[in-house]
Amino acid sequence: MPKPRLLVMSDAIEKLVRPGADEFEIVRLEGAGDRDAFLAANGAGIGAALVSGMERFDAARFDLLPDLGLIATVAAGMSGIDLDTAKARGVAVINAGDLNAGDVADFAVTLMLAQTREVIANDRYVREDRWPAARRRPPVSVSAQKVGIVGLGHIGLAIARRLEPFGCEIAWWGPRPKPDAAWPRIESLEELASWSSVLMVAARGDDSTRGLITADVLAALGPDGLIVNVSRGFVIDEPAMIAALQDGRLGAAALDVFEHEPINGSDWAGVPNVLMAPHVAGATQQAFARVFAGALDNLRRHFAGEPLLRRVV
Hints:
Belongs to the D-isomer specific 2-hydroxyacid dehydrogenase family. This is 2-hydroxyacid dehydrogenase. InterPro entries: D-isomer_2-hydroxyacid_DH, D-isomer_2_OHA_DH_cat_dom, D-isomer_DH_NAD-bd, NAD(P)-bd_dom_sf. The protein is an alpha/beta fold. The chain has eleven helices and eleven strands.
């Protein structure tokens, strides 16, 4: 019996997920040169694709994969995938779901604590021998923060649960009400930003949220506000955020994601009060193990005709 054909988008993904050559006929896209030409010649019969979520899967690429039935994403974000086209063509899409949500939430809260309690600034203060001369101005208590969460999905929910014991006041905004949510939903994103001292961005990272955090939202957050982003870089109007930080119209930022990755950190040398990380919020050993095993399990389920887990489309 022929093995099911599996498209793997990169060598890195293959090494992490480790789909076996004894189970699948693996079609490797890395090193193919003109990828669309390669798929035009080799796409027939490919039943599933193993992807990071950022690769291009638009209508034109779906045309090159007429037998595709599943896109298995090894992340929560699916910014490269046209989900409407996938749905229209009967292609299932799965992602990491809640498998790494706790780790992402841990990191979001870590970024918030580091900025609100000025961990990096205090470290620098000691290293630069300024401590003997004077004490620094004390920051605002963590328990006094009003935290607005943008998106109360798996990650946003985990953030809220982690912040409750700190005594923070919590509210949220998302496109749809959630009657079972334990925290109030504020009717508009600008109202949430105006209410918040900290805005935590945990929204779904796809075309529906591109540019969601506008210059007006940043202005509503204001010169004392902190924005934390563990979603996708493109969810924030990045040039507007940089300008607001430089002009003092936004207090601070803590960013795990950027519009174009990887960035040259030196390009941000003139941007004050920003704490940066290289897209690692969900990158723990335990989360990786869960996510990669989950993707492989769904590939097996798909080809066995079994129900999929963490299905988005």
